[in-house]
Amino acid sequence: MKKALTLCLALVVVFACGEAREKELHVLNWSDYFAPDTITNFEKEFDCRVTIDYIESTETLRLKLAKPPSGYDVVFPSDEVVQVLISGGQLDPLDRTKIANFGNLDPRFRGLPFDPENRYTVPYMWGTTGLAMNVSKVDPVPDSWAVLWDPKYEGRVTLLDDSRDAMAAAMFVNGDDPHAPTAESIARARDKLATCRPRAWISSVKDMLVSGDAWICQAFNGDAMQAGEAEERAGDIAFVIPKEGGFTWFDNMAIAKGAPHPDLAHAFIDYLLRPEVSAAISNEVCYANPNLAARPLIDKAQIEDPTIYPDEETMGRCRVLVEPPEALKPLLIKAWAEVKAR
Amino acid sequence: MTRGRLAGLLLPPAGWLLLFLLVPAGFIVVAAFEGGGLEVLGTASTFGLVRRSLVMAVLSTMLCLLLGYPLAWFIAGCRPRARNLLLFLVVLPFWTNLLVRTYALLFLLRPFEWHHTPGAVLLGITHNFLPFMVLPLYGSIERLPRSLLEAAQNLGASPARAFVKVALPLTAPGIAAGCILVFIPALGTFAIPELLGGASVRMIGSQIDHCFRHRDPAAGAALTLLLIAVTLGLTWVYHRLRRTGGIV
């Protein structure tokens, strides 16, 4: 009896040690955002285990990181929350000496406005926000955000369910600068949006386009591509960056405040920046890759697809939409709620 | 002793209610008053939203009553075995999740382009809440002695007059209960207008969801208070009517 007990205890001790020695990296990412072997290769090479939790919205990410330490090591915030996370003290600064592959990044995508010195974040994938449309229903192909107000398409357009994007479209049409909002331009945008008759306020427009409910959608380029891949819409879906301007968005890699395994977290980010790893991911998920060194390894069809990689002239019209000043945020929230209540 | 035991039995449910009903409700009240959320109740857009929600809820309640009364009347007139089967069929839709049924309606209406319209939302609400109308109506109608109707007709009342003067007043409690049971959830319904209405038929439930998701909890709390006030007010009117004999 006593012997058995001792044996059990010994076993427990052995397993407990084994557990403690095994390194485990906790990752918080959007779903379908790695290549199939990205994680398994990392686990093998670094002799560790990777646990991934998935987020489906920026709001979920904010909630999960609200009270550090969150238990996560590497997280993937979109540009719109990066500043909020930094000022809220929810990210740890990166130690760039441990991220040698940072140099692989395209210089164009370093020092973006939401983190000018890349102290906290490294861009992971990027894309644009513009107009996705069903060209079999829309003639001529519009080149302005104003088409969302065209009576011809009343009830056939959708806008993103996000105050910044929807208001920005209205500001472009009003001739205001969405990158420098004022109390007046917000009020004007609110009144403009109040006259819009969209089919829905919705952020994932794929189903709207495929079903034919909507013909013109304010959309992320990824959703436009996915809608175009649907059989019943093959060749019907186009994506346009309007002449007034569009937006670029970035999903980023960052380390959560109080990450349990900071060294491994840095190693993971460095690993994801390797050209072959990075290219394998973007070949799988079809988003634009900010990694210049990975470019030769990316599928040629993707590189040549203007929906994924817009030409220089179009890129010149696209900018990252930065957080509005703190003082304007309540105004923006109120204006947006009023628009939605209509 | 027994009293003490009864109190002990009461403790868990009372504690449950206190913890999960009253405490969050308290938070809602605080949130509504603290962040200046009540201001939102005075805006024109909220007025339009509330009016639209009230119209949809009233219309769907009336539709439920119009559809539910004959159905309940028919069921009450069947033989007992058939009654049980029919009542079972009335509640059968609840075996399927609301979202599944609403998506089913969406796919049904889509080929005709009838979705994303006020009519679609009305159909969705009526379809979903009809059982709440039929069950209390059935309870009232079943207890109605048919001999009273025969007596009225023997005394010279036309069938319609007998129905209006005798059957309706005697089944009023069922009508009132059914209407309240349909109206209250219909007013606050969220998934049905979201899916079947799109942006054109937004109701108060969707706006509450919007406020809480888009960092305006004070306004969301204020709108929630408004819904609670309407609910409490209606319940009060109902009890008042019962006590003063307005409905038996």
User: What best-fitting shape of chain B do the alpha-carbon axes yield?
Assistant: globular
Helix count, DSSP H or I runs of 4 or more residues of chain A = 13
CATH superfamily of chain B: MetI-like
SSE order of chain A in H/E notation? HEHEHEHEEEHHEHEHEEHHHHEH
Count the beta strands of chain A: 11
Whole-number tally of structural domains of chain B: 1
Q: What proportion strand of chain B?
A: under 5%
Largest sheet of chain B: none
Greatest contact between two chains: A-B, 21 and 22 residues
Compute the gyration radius of chain A: what is it? Answer: 23 Å
Description:
The complex is a heterodimer of chains A (342) and B (248). Chain A is an alpha/beta fold. Chain A has helices at 2-21, 38-46, 58-65, 79-87, 163-174, 183-194, 206-211, 221-229, 262-272, 275-285, 300-303, 312-315, 329-341, and strands at residues 23-30, 48-55, 74-75, 91-92, 121-134, 157-159, 200-201, 216-220, 237-240, 246-256, 318-320. Chain B has helices spanning 2-34, 44-76, 80-91, 98-109, 118-143, 146-154, 159-170, 172-188, 191-197, 204-213, 217-244. The longest helix of chain B has 33 residues, at 2-34. Chain B starts with a helix and ends with a helix.
